[in-house]
Amino acid sequence: MSISFTKAITNQLQQEIAAIESKIITEKKKKDKAQSKINQLQRDMKLSQSHSDLSSKMSRINKLNEEIKNNDRMQADLSKQLASKKTSLKQQQAKQPLQEE
Predict the structure, then answer these.
(1) 3-class DSSP string for the chain
(2) Which has more pLDDT, 96 or 45?
(3) Domains in the chain: ranges and CATH
(4) Which residue intervals are annotated with compositional bias (Polar residues) in the record (predicted)?
């Protein structure tokens, strides 16, 4: 394999790693936002007096909890992808010095 080909693969892996890290941060922000909405709804529930209002807030909390579960799954998948890409990058970087000789 030529040096330029290995460098191209390395650059592509670095870009993919950066993209995955960005997605992880975005997903983390979404989770934090959903959690803060749940906390706000729980505070509001203490002030609610009508049954329909409580019911709608409970439904919204359940929906947000489901969103958080999906978000956790997505973060786990992204973390696996990230680990895989980092491993591939290390392997490619290990090949580079050998090819430059």
Answers:
(1) CCHHHHHHHHHHHHHHHHHHHHHHHHHHHHHHHHHHHHHHHHHHHHHCCCHHHHHHHHHHHHHHHHHHHHHHHHHHHHHHHHHHHHHHHHHHHHHHHHHHC
(2) 45
(3) 3-100 (1.10.287)
(4) 36-59, 81-101
